[in-house]
Amino acid sequence: xxxxxxxxxxxxxxxxxxxxxxxxxxxxxxxxxxxxxxxxxxxxxxxxxxxxxxxxxxxxxxxxxxxxxxxxxxxxxxxxxxxxxxxxxxxxxxxxx
Length: 97
Prior knowledge:
Elements: H1 13-24, H2 34-38, H3 64-71, H4 77-91
C-alpha cells in the first residue's frame, strides 16, 4: 500500500463497496473488458523519434572555448559538435563501420 499523507481519510470497506456498486450500476461507465483493452494502441510514441544511429550519453571535459563556440551557433549545437567529431573520426580511419 502506498504511503499516505497524514490527513488522508480512506473509505471503510462498506463505503468502498457502496461506491463500487454505484459506479457499476451506471451503464455508461462500465469497466473495459480484456478484449477491449487489448485493442488499445498508443496514440503516439513519447520522446524524440528513434535515430538511425544510436547515441550514447557520456560525460567529457572539453575546453570551454570550444563549447562556447558551438553554443554560440544556437540550437542544435550538440548535434553539430557530434558531427564535427564524426567527421574527424572518419577522416582519420577511426571508425570500423
